[in-house]
Design brief:
- The structure holds 2 protein chains of 2 kinds.
- Chain A contains 9 helices and no strands.
- Chain A is mainly alpha-helical.
- Chain B has a single domain, classed as 3-Layer(aba) Sandwich (Rossmann fold), CATH 3.40.50.
- Chain B has a 5-stranded parallel beta sheet with strand order 6-7-8-3-9, with helices on both faces. Chain B has a 4-stranded antiparallel beta sheet with strand order 2-1-4-5, covered by helices on one side.
- In chain B, helix 3 (94-104) crosses helix 4 (111-120) and helix 3 (94-104) runs parallel beside helix 5 (136-149).
- In chain B, 40% of the residues are buried.
- Classes of the chains: A mainly alpha, B alpha/beta.
- The interface between A and B is medium-sized, with 26 and 33 residues.
Chain lengths: 222, 206
Amino acid sequence: MIAVKATLVRDLTLLLRRRGEVLNPLVFFALVITLFPIAISPDPELLAVIAPGLLWVAALLAALLSLDSLFRSDYDDGSLEQLLLAPQPLAALSLAKVAVHWLLTGLPLALMAPILGIMLALPAGSYAVLALSLALGTASLSLIGAIGAALTVGLARGGVLLSLLVLPLYIPVLIFGAGAVQAAIFGDGVAAHLAILGALLAASLMLAPWAIAASLRISING
Amino acid sequence: MSLCLQARQLACERDDRWLFQGLDLDIRSGEIVRIEGPNGSGKTSLLKILSGQLSDYQGELFWNGAAMNEAREHFLANLLYLGHAPGIKSGLSPLENLAWYQALSGESGNEERRLDALEQVGLAGFEDVPAGQLSAGQQRRVALARLTLTPRALWVLDEPFTAIDRHGVADLERQLVAHAQAGGCVLVTTHHELTASPLLRRISLG
């Protein structure tokens, strides 16, 4: 437990000192969303139809962008091999790293999305669902993505491979996430969509840490 | 406490070339074992195999008589490995770096011990400077501070003298001998000539 807490504190401190890396996905998210009304049409009715999908796709890509750096710097400076040699459960330590990633990527994206939703004329009443679905969904995205990041950390240019590996696994989260916001707009029940997002998160929470630990071992031990 | 790391018929192949074959090793308490050999002769690979980091090898490893697979947890709890890369985060201060390592070994943090360990490696006054602003030798010294900070029986050190000045080298050599005399065990690769000592044993590769 001490080690898990120390890893949380260490990664949070490190990322908060390198703000650029934290801001990158948020800036990307904001830029993409800003460009859409300019490129398509400022018509609020049209935008309202495509807004849920746009917001979710842009947030997903922003989260994907930040994944490669999850284990990269630890790999480069040798702390990753020390992490693997620690007499601690590796799954718990990797879960701490993923938690930090979500806190500084997924959560800010979820909080920022409603503001960008205004820009896309997202109908009132769906803002809370948008933030909630993104908060739940990006947690699954971080967990699943970390498996791919762990598998590709040993490769010099693992970025493209990483996207190819994890994008198919992201699709269920995308479908139900965007579906929740759409349901909120049309006034349908959102509970089912959110419940499935929660179930996906529970499943990834249960399985992903072990998969991340095994992937890291494969990457480091060859 | 007596400990014993054994390897039987160890062999490792890289790119269709045998780095070593049929290697039998017995490493016991109170020894400093220096692994020698030219560049590319497999010193680092051997250290990684012996510290349980590489699984791509032939042969068997035993820790205190038990097969490594079964004794791995006990082995890791007794191991301190310092690799080529010092494992020091440039964005954190030496104190913060050591705090993580202390917690990673399962101890609750103790600032006094961390300060002591830093003072011993000659980094008093640099405790709160980001490690990225320290020189390569000073960063290596932060990593070496773990030797005093987390007491472990088996030290596996890959080129620990890199970038360390002459004074620091002498200190570190004394520390290795003291550790062996106290019943610990040191496994080291280095191109630096170690002072002859009855505790020192050499293994040549390549």
